Prior knowledge:
Layout: H1 2-60, E1 63-64, H2 67-75, H3 77-89, E2 95-101, E3 104-119, E4 123-138, E5 145-158, E6 167-170, H4 175-184, E7 187-188, E8 202-204, H5 214-221, H6 233-240, E9 252-258, E10 261-268, E11 273-279, E12 282-289, E13 293-300, E14 305-310, E15 313-317, E16 324-328, E17 331-339, E18 345-347, E19 361-366, E20 369-372, E21 382-384, E22 387-389, E23 396-401, E24 415-418, E25 425-434, E26 438-441, E27 447-456, E28 459-460, E29 465-470, H7 472-475, E30 490-503
Parallel strand pairs: 6-8, 6-27, 7-29, 10-16, 11-17, 16-19, 17-20, 19-23, 20-24, 23-25, 24-26, 25-27, 26-28, 27-29
Antiparallel strand pairs: 1-30, 2-3, 3-4, 4-5, 5-30, 9-10, 11-12, 12-13, 13-14, 14-15, 17-18, 21-22
Helix pairs in contact: 2-3
Amino acid sequence: MTVLLLLVVFSGLCLAMLQASAVHLKINGVRRFSGLLDYASENGIKRAWSDLASWIGAEALLAPLEEVRVDAMRTSGGEAFPALLDAALGSPFPRSLEESFEGLTWTSRAECAFGGLEDRGGYLRITAALRIEARGGLDGIRSRRVSVLEGTLGLLAGRLPLAAVPFYIRGEMSAGERSAFLAENGIRLPPKPGMPIAPSLVVSPSGVLPPDAGSLAAEALNIGVFRPGDLSPARLRQALGLEASTDAVPDGVYLIRNDLGLGGVFVQGDLDEIVLAVREDAQIAVFRAAGGLEWRLEWSPARSRTEFSSPEGTAAYDLVPLPILFVNGAIRALGGGAVGPDGRVEMAADGETPAVLDGVGLTIVSTSEVTIASHLILEGVRWQNGVPYAKDSTAQLVIYASGQDIVSGEATPGRIAVAADAPDSLKVQATLTAAGSGFEIEGAGKSVELMGGLQAGGYRGNGSGLTLFRDERAAAGEFPAHGPATADPQLAVYSLRALAWKEY
């Protein structure tokens, strides 16, 4: 009886264990299938996101646009938005994917809708709502798992600030030719962590580089807009505060002063050197010309104080100038410097000394050509693992070679060059626009690190390399206040952001 009783007990225990094992296996099977479904739907979201970012880098960083489309957006954004995208980018939405891998299958669909816009005068900053829905499944299983990613697309439409275009070369190239161009010239366009849109090469034969710098000259001079060649000596003299005459303006550096306050700086003639430096809370720009002539502009935005020294003497103002240095001629050497114990400013070659004060957005225009002779560093830019980040900085620098004399209207080189005797490992933190012959690295064996953007009529590396990092402020839709704009209306996608991930 005892043996039979034990057999019954152990048999019951075995049956209970078998039942528990079956339940456990079933639960684990359900968990396994659920996990695989999760993986499949997650893959659908990730692949759709990657596809969208790749499409933006290849097709949507810049596209020509008709002015009428921009005007329609101003009056009825919601209705005009689909037509705007279709006209410039060729019906990019909805975007669908269907893929499988080792028994996992997924489909995804990305849709885009108008969210809102901000009118910035010459262009519109548009926010679009993005929705990506993915369905994941397993071969032979009817169940599906749904995941949804919600985000935003940032677009610009109109005559865009060129700082919004990371890398542009005038011309025509296929996708293969662009890749070959980058490889042959040693150009690297690495993405920054957290920025899904990496810089890439954009090409087009026309409509991007502005024809002249007349609008920036008008800003610097505090006068109405004019066309190059139409600015008479008498009118220019009046703007510069010189005595009335029809004679040509003498070569020199002029700080614009009138009833409106301080304007920018206008330079007539070539300069041997411009050196930018920071001293405590002040920005310094030193101008040197042939014959040992020197002018010095120092201003403090915090104290609203400006001092301008010239061969004729020194003047002080309780105002700050418009941060535009307009040179109607060439700049033979431009670089960042440091203030010595005697107060003299000389170029620095350490690659760490800031040249532009945090809070200053400086624009330097040459109607002929600019040669970069030393590092140009923005105050507040931090370095992490060898990558520059400007998110915490409010300093900005634009360098623009326009390719046309503002007074005579004659064509000029319109070139930006890195000097042959510049540091071999050169750091430049600026947006460079060379609207004429283009950008060139003189000499060979240099490594130029550019944080910002480059737009040029041509490119010559001469055996040197260029690494271009996108400024994350441009990726957030914030651009310098005074800079060149595209010649014709364009559409550009500048940001891609994820906001929420939902599972159903």
